Amino acid sequence: LRLKGRVLLAVEGINGTLSGDSEQIQTYMDEMAQFELIGKCGLPQDANQSRETIRPEHLFRGVDWKKSISDISTKGSLVEPFPDLKISVVKEIISTGGSVSVEEIPRLGGTHLSPSEFHQAILENENVVLIDVRNEFEHNIGHFVNPQTREKAMNPETVTFSSFEGTFCERRAEELRDKKVLMYCTGGIRCEKASVMLKRRGVQDVSQLQGGIHRYLEQYGDDGLYQGRNFVFDQRVDQNHSSQPREIVGQCIECMEPYDEISGSRICAVCRDLVLVCPSCCSRLREYHCRRHQTWKTCYYTFIDMFDQKELEAQHQSLSTLRDSYTNKNMRRTLFRQMEKVRERIKQLEEGS
Predict the structure, then answer these.
(1) Which of 87, 96, 72, 77 is nearest to 12 (CA)?
(2) How many whole angstroms separate alpha carbon 300 and alpha carbon 296?
(3) HSE on the CB side for 190, CA within 13 Å?
(4) Active-site residue (options: 185, 252, 290, 299)
(5) What is the rounded CA–CA span in Å between residue 214 and residue 240?
(6) For a tag site, which of 75, 105, 144, 293 has the least CB within 10 Å?
(7) How far, in Å, CA of 240 to CA of 236, rounded?
(8) Which residue intervals define the domain Rhodanese in the entry (predicted)?
(9) How far apart are the C-alpha atoms of 294 and 286, rounded to whole Å?
(10) In angstroms, how far apart are the furthest CA atoms of the chain?
């Protein structure tokens, strides 16, 4: 079919995005709907039944396929969202480090709300708590806003979803126990596990947006409660849901001017998270630092060869002071490694190398 994209295969399911022309995509969906497990793969070796007595398993009938059009172009030519096709076998399609099993999802997962139900729930409940399950850089360029309170959804402050339980749930579950929680993500997958994490910690009234922001924007577009861009992990960068100029909700981390252009070349020197930095500020910065590491930006750099000995000694002193201010072992370890790196460079300069 000459499709391109990224597909993850795991015991718990399949997740991915594929690109192609409309005919190729439709053929793929038709073939998936016709796929029958026993007929294609045969019976397990330890099966005690004959093929004739086993009910056919059409695993992919009724899949809620999400489709969108890519219109990105360079110099007048359309650019495909993916350069090639990559299929990977993984332990989890959404990594939690094994903390959430697939068996827990139907038992502990949140209530699924359609886009219209989700929309209505926000309008009817002034005190509802909106939680954005995505990573911080995704939240920064687009999020839901409660129209009654004008408060935007809670930011989990995560770099990757695998840290959602430790970074968000561990700190915030207690205050959410008696609240009505509405959570959302890009397509709905991350919420399946995020809702389990919260409910295991005693948060009972948890609902999630079925089909994610993608489905919501298809239904509501500019007339909904979602503001800004919906980030996607391919060359499109975001889901194009409007013919109108989009509202910019993001801000440059340096000058705080409205800005929402994400670039893979602008990442935090410490944690490698994507950072919003406008072109004007880019031109005067050596490296970039995310919100969590703003206090590190005068002393923590990936490339240190351009600094002289006096500058490096000042960095080393600042790193030492920062390290003494933290009790978190990971933070202290990260700073100590950078101190060692700077110390080694100072030694090289002293030796004339």
Answers:
(1) 96
(2) 6
(3) 21
(4) 185
(5) 10
(6) 75
(7) 8
(8) 124-225
(9) 14
(10) 80
First-residue to last-residue Cα distance in the chain: 56
Q: How far is the C-alpha of 253 from the C-alpha of 342, rounded, in Å?
A: 26
How confident is residue 268, by pLDDT bands cut at 50, 70 and 90? very high
Residue 227 · residue 242 · CB < 8 Å: no
- Residue bearing tokens 């399609």: 93
> Residue 287 corresponds to which tokens in the numbers above?
């490296």
What is the β-pairing status of strands 206-209 and 111-113? parallel
Q: What is the dihedral of CA 276, 232, 128, 204, to 10 degrees?
A: -120
Q: How far is CA 124 from CA 128, 137, 226, 264, 334, in A?
A: 9, 29, 16, 39, 46
For the chain, the structural domain boundaries read 4-89, 104-228, 298-350
Tell me if residue 299 is catalytic. no
Residue 292 and residue 157 in contact, taking contact as beta carbons nearer than 8 Å = yes
Q: How far apart are CA 74 and CA 336, in angstroms?
A: 44
* 286-333 tens-digit pLDDT: 999 999 999 999 999 999 999 999 999 999 999 999 999 999 999 999
Strand partners, 226: 144
Structure tokens at 185: 């993500």
pTM of the full structure:
0.85
Token reading at 283: 């031109």
Instruction: Quote the pLDDT of residue 79.
Output: 74
Name the phi and psi angles at 8, rounded to 5.
Answer: -110, 130
| 206: β partners | 181
